[in-house]
């Protein structure tokens, strides 16, 4: 099974919407307009393909995104810099094959050269033990709980420290940016946050 991760294309959005809305109660449904809004504002929006077929997707946003989710706002009120995973969906035919872990590894590699923390939430009502176990084994820990006002469901708010960010920041970001290396090529173009620059630096 060949898995490829790539940036979402506008032509993918109808298939992404159908996949999201077939995911079940663990994923809130979307309307087309909101998905198109994600396409405009998400800092990370990538899909997984298996042999050319859409197998899953993940949407994540930086703390500066113009986004009104109460869970996103909870993190923005408490953390200076973070990447927030809004949703991950894997098609039912591909569950249990590691697609979710591949997407999480990819979003972590995106996040760890930008921010110190990766955030998300999982539903506690109804409790999704598979999601709780997945995030626990991947290094997330609970940092709070709240009830989402629009749906009345309680969530566990999770965070994962990205210890490699301090090395990246101190070694590269504060001294002219990341080196010109092939494995960093896709990650360099968004590293323009002025908060990562030292006074008088580039």
TrEMBL record:
| GO molecular function ontology, one term from the record | acyltransferase activity, transferring groups other than amino-acyl groups
Asked if Transferase is a keyword of the record, the answer is yes
Matching Gene3D superfamilies, A to Z?
Answer: 3.40.630.30
**So which domain of life are we looking at?**
Bacteria
PROSITE patterns given in the database record: GNAT
Q: Where is the signal peptide?
A: none
Alphabetical UniProt keywords:
Transferase
Source species: Mizugakiibacter sediminis
Does the keyword section mention Transcription regulation? Answer: no
Q: What is the protein name given in its UniProt record?
A: GCN5 family acetyltransferase
N-acetyltransferase domain span: 3-163
